[in-house]
Amino acid sequence: MAACVRRVVNAVVTKTSGAVLEQKRYVRGLRRTPVRVLVPDHHTDKVIKPPPPQQLEPSQRPVRRRGEETAERRENSECVKARSEGRSGSDALRAVTEQDPMGAVRFERAFPGDKRLARLVSVARSRTFREHQGKILLEGRRLICDALDAGANPQMVFFSMVDRLRELPLDKLKRATLVKVKFEDIKIWSDLVAPQGVIAIFSRPDPSRLNFLNRGHSLPLSLICDNIRDPGNLGTMLRCAAAAGCHNVLLTKGCVDAWEPKVLRAAMGAHFRLPIYPSLDWDDIENHLPKSVTTHVADSSCGIDRSREMEDSEVIASHKPSKAGEYGWVRTKPNRSNIRYEEYDSESDSESENEGLSLPRVDTMLYHERWAQSPTALVIGGETHGLSVEAVQLAEKTAGHRLFIPVVPDVDSLNSAMAASILLFEGRKQLLKIMQTSEKKRNSKVERQFS
Q1: How many Å apart are CA 350 and CA 159, to the nearest integer?
Q2: Can you tell me the distance from the alpha carbon of 330 to that of 233, in angstroms, rounded to the nearest whole number?
Q3: Please, what is the end-to-end C-alpha distance for the chain in angstroms?
Q4: Percent of the chain predicted with pLDDT > 90
Q5: Which DSSP category does 382 fall into?
Q6: What is 212-302+362-450's CATH number?
Q7: Strand, coil or helix: what is 158?
Q8: Which of 210, 277, 313, 318 is within CB 3.0–4.6 Å of 150 for a Cys-Cys bond?
């Protein structure tokens, strides 16, 4: 304990004959409360006690305003909450709401060892959590802005600099919790090589409630993704569907989750430009399509001699295999509800099933022929297992065709995302041509009436 020595003038002793001044040296110990004065050893019987605190009358006591009491209680509650979570009071005070120097937005500063970012990012990356808790993770200014423009509901936003936060539409973040964290923490939990310093947690959006800006440019063209398990391929398909002006995108239960971070990065904001309905049964898929739709399936043209395709297209069109093994582009086992955990049989079992399985009869057609003349749906199958039997049955039911893209000999097939982009833009071209032709006929008819 630190101590200081000072010269103290003792009390004045008053006598009848006069006054005597006596000087003595004391040592005063520095304590918080109460303060005691320690005297030398030969004066142990003399202890000077501090005077009692002065009692104030009720009229003289300071009056606290309601706002001051609320702020003090809030600060105390933060400290109590911090102690209950194993943090110190100083760390809790750092999490109190602050305001940037420009006064544009109020935010929280994360305390040291804050686990909120790590916990939310970890659970948002889990498909089970996204489906049951209804949360998605978006990273980057452009993707977050697209979600806010479409009307998605933000819950929490983590940012490293206030300038990064000002790049977002602040008027749409009033109900979200804004937390300022270190850039090193964002870099640890980010999937990007060069993070932008902003990560947001959104409620899982409902496609029927979002405001899509490109709805006025959409065509009666739907994309059905059947058992697409590669995140990059699915994201590219969604991006192509948005660019081609598709009306909607339907995903079967065998597809990868559309809100996976890799799919979001590959789609480049396509999730907020057209409706995407995930995890659908084939009965639900038919409910999302118009009644007069024609469903076509993409064919990799396996089992057919491609060297003679351009020379004799009539022979190709008349080729109607009767067994699943002759198709090559159809999965031999029906789609199940738990297709993610489906165990595929050995080659011998598959061959025995192929012999007794009869698939629907669907004629083939080259991709540049006239196949998109009315509301159309296009089914793209996965590269590993191909199309499901239900997709072929839907094509037969709606008088659809097997569309294939001719390639040079000794080339296996195109990437599923690349084939989808070629077929979607070909369907867009055909639908636009029909719409333009019908519009010209209607205009000419009106002119004849007024002439």
Answers
A1: 53
A2: 19
A3: 110
A4: 42
A5: B
A6: 3.40.1280.10
A7: strand
A8: 210
Residue 42: the pLDDT is 55
Structure token pair of residue 213: 């800006």
Digit-coded pLDDT (tens) for 432-442 = 999 998 888 88
Q: How many CA atoms lie within 13 A of 221 on its CB side?
A: 27
Q: What is the CA radius of gyration of the chain?
A: 38
Amino acid letter for position 410: D
389 CB-side CA count, 13 A? 13
> Which of helix, strand or coil describes residue 16?
coil
SS3 21: coil
Q: Which of 29-38, 264-273, 341-350 has the lowest mean pLDDT?
A: 341-350
Q: How confident is the model at residue 95 (pLDDT cuts 50, 70, 90)?
A: very low
Q: What is the mean pLDDT of residues 267-272?
A: 94
- Looking from the CA of 394 toward its CB, the CA atoms found within 13 Å total 27
Q: What separation in angstroms does the CA of 212 have from each of 150, 233, 327?
A: 6, 23, 39
For residues 304 and 316, the answer to whether their CB atoms sit within 8 Å is yes
Task: Count Cβ atoms below 10 Å from residue 382 Cβ, excluding itself.
Answer: 22
pLDDT, the chain, mean:
75
Query: 3-state class of 396 per DSSP?
Result: helix
Q: What tokens were used for 379?
A: 């089914």
Helix axes 416-450, 231-244, angle to 10 degrees: 10
The length of the chain in residues reads 451
Q: How far is CA 20 from CA 11, 15, 16, 17, 60, in A?
A: 10, 8, 11, 10, 41
CA–CA distance, 85 with 87 (Å, rounded to integer): 6
Separation in Å, CA 263 to CA 21, 73, 116, 230, 379: 92, 46, 24, 9, 19
- Backbone conformation region of residue 331, classed left if phi is above 0, alpha if psi is from -120 to 50, else beta: beta
DSSP assignment, residue 438?
A: H
pTM of the model: 0.68
Q: Is 444 helix (H, G, I), strand (E, B) or coil?
A: helix
Q: pLDDT grade, residue 216 (50/70/90)?
A: confident
DSSP string, 333-379: S---TTGGGPPPP-HHHHHHHHHH-------EEETTSS--SSSEEEE
Q: Is residue 409 helix, strand or coil? A: coil
pLDDT digits (tens, 9 = 90+) for 81-92: 544 444 443 343
Give the C-alpha separation, 250 to 260, whole Å. Answer: 16
- Strands 23-29, 37-38: pairing is antiparallel
Question: How is the chain split into domains, by residue range?
Answer: 98-207, 212-302+362-450
